[in-house]
Amino acid sequence: MDDVLVVMEGIDKSFPGVHALDQVRFELRAGEVHALVGENGAGKSTLMKILAGIYPKDSGRILYKGREVDVPDPRSAQQLGISMIHQELNLMPHLTLAQNVYIGREPRQSLRFLLNERQINAQTRALFDSMHLKLDPRTKASDLTVARQPMVEIAKALSFDSQVLIMDEPTAALTEAEIEELFRIIRQLRSRGVGIVYISHRLEELKHIADRITVMRDGRYVDTVDAQEVSIDRIISMMVGRAIYESAPEVPENGGGEVVLEVRNLNRGNALKDVSFSLKRGEILGFAGLMGAGRTEVARAIFGADPLDSGEIYVAGKRVDIRNPRDAVRCGIGYLSEDRKRYGLALGMNVEANVVLAAFQKFLGLAGIVNSSKTRVTAQHYVEALAIKTPGLQQRVKNLSGGNQQKVVIGKWLTADTDILIFDEPTRGIDVGAKSEIYRLLNDLAHQGKAIIMISSELPEILRMSHRIIVMCEGRITGEVSAGEATQEVIMKFATQRGGIVAENQSSTNGS
Predict the structure, then answer these.
(1) pLDDT tens digits, 463-494
(2) How do 468-473 and 284-289 pair as beta strands?
(3) Residue 68 CB partners (closer than 8 Å, separation 6+)
(4) Which of 9, 47, 66, 281 has minimal CB crowding within 10 Å?
(5) Of 460, 437, 12, the residue nearest 241 (C-alpha)
(6) CA 231 to each of CA 215, 226, 323, 358, 383: distance values in angstroms, whole numbers, following the listed order
């Protein structure tokens, strides 16, 4: 068809240990907004980064205006007329808006080392006027509101005469009024014939802005549908349509003794908004939500890694003041970060040192000398108890597999005798066999009376392991469901809700 701008066929892409895209196809027409949706890890951003020249494809082909093209780098994409606005915006705060728009392409004066500021400001003002944006090109980017930053990125894309504009989660940090302003500009671009790829987790937006919707799941193409003819329930069903697990759920029995952790009205900028919940002894409390929902921010706030604006934390009924991770450990809280290599392990040190690291004071004798026989016995105990596969205690942790590294982190917090354990993406980057072992460990810890928060982007994992599930969206808790009531569809509905709509059974949240 004459109006087809882009066709991607048979796109394959692998990273070490991950088959990110498997024979994916995608089509974009001139003058349409084509939404691209799917769960975390579905491959949406990877596919678009290939189109934008950020990643090379392993196989497949890209047709642009009917001609097969190679897009080896972002500059080549821009020269073709393809621009991408990333979720993490790329404005340079110390430069003016005009300098940001034309960076690397600045008009020069007769002395080539001098910028023609008058011309660059005039060109940028003309761009802003065409978009009906009331912005001064001379404003420093650091003085711009979050809502205005995507508008400047769009202006930058239009300065390349872009005919394909890829927007990755453009409304993630915007208010309703700001979103409507963005939609006005998107509609204006659509009327000019620009093709827009719109990646979003906010499904309710799609009815307002999208013409067609393509759904991806687990790195594969699922279907393309008309936005006005498909229901949100149908989109969710396509997003999560895979089989959950062959085996029976592994939810531990008897979850939930007395409340051991309670948080009330945690607030931190836009990241956390009045977050309140409770955690019981012997319970695995799952935290679900899409990227940027605020799940990790909750964990880091409880652990003292990030400061709070307001809110209260209670451990065993007593209010505690947690200002840093050391305070959290004293309160019996351990945090297994999603980035275990950066925050959970000393990779250059051996297994023994890592296991005792969080409770080092326990192993100091008189005159501050380390009781090495005690550290050795303790480390050996957890190597055996957690079935850590290692040639010996002196093996450097960086040489272990991902699953065994995760077990070392668990051993570290068990050595510190923490009763409250926060697992952030506990099975990320480990193979299926190691996942099963981590699930067994979580169950064993719950049976021992440990209270566990498990954050996971994998809905089957959350459903398989949790007694209760708390769902977040944009820094707020938007739903809470019990294991018996939870389905992937229910969780996805809460995960894509704006505002603080909470399930009826949330009366249990405050310690009931």
Answers:
(1) 989 999 999 998 999 999 998 888 888 998 89
(2) parallel
(3) 61, 62
(4) 66
(5) 460
(6) 13, 10, 46, 50, 51
Structure tokens at 256: 């939930």
pLDDT at 339: 77
Separation CA 345–CA 100 (nearest Å): 39
- Contact indicator for 157, 148 with CB cutoff of 8 Å: no
Distance, in Å, from the CA atom of 420 to the CA atom of 397, rounded to the nearest integer, reads: 24
Taking residue 75's Cβ as centre, other Cβ atoms within 10 Å add up to: 12
Question: Are the CB atoms for 357 and 413 separated by under 8 Å?
Answer: no
Which of 131-140, 322-331, 492-501: highest mean pLDDT? 322-331
Residues with Cβ within 8 Å of residue 131, at least 6 apart in sequence:
151, 154, 155, 158, 185, 188
Q: Where are the domains of the chain?
A: 1-78, 89-161, 256-332+419-512, 345-418
Chain centre distance of CA 378: 36
DSSP helix/strand/coil, 427? coil
State both tokens at 294: 């605020």
Q: Given a cut of 60, is residue 432 above it in pLDDT? A: no
Tokens of 333: 């809280």
Cβ proximity of 409 and 386 under 8 Å: no
The pLDDT of 289-312, averaged and rounded, is 92
Indicate if 256-332+419-512 has the same CATH topology as 1-78. Answer: yes
**Predicted TM-score (pTM) of this structure:** 0.59
Cα dihedral 439→441→446→449 (10° resolution): -170
Sign of torsion, CA 340 48 435 262? positive
Q: How far is CA 321 from the centre of its chain?
A: 28
475, burial (CB in 10 Å: exposed 0-12, middle 13-18, buried 19+) = buried
* Alpha carbon distance 132, 187 (integer Å): 13
From residue 131, how far is each of 115, 125, 266 by CA, in Å?
Answer: 25, 10, 39
Please report, for residues 95, 180, 428, 444, 474, the alpha-carbon distance to residue 385 in angstroms, rounded to integers and kept in the order given.
56, 56, 22, 11, 39
Tally helices (H) and strands (E) across the chain.
16, 20
d(CA 167, CA 149) in angstroms, rounded, equals 13
* CATH classification number, 256-332+419-512, choose in 3.30.230.30, 3.40.630.30, 3.40.50.300, 1.25.40.10: 3.40.50.300
Q: What is the Rg, in whole angstroms, of the alpha carbon atoms belonging to the chain? A: 25
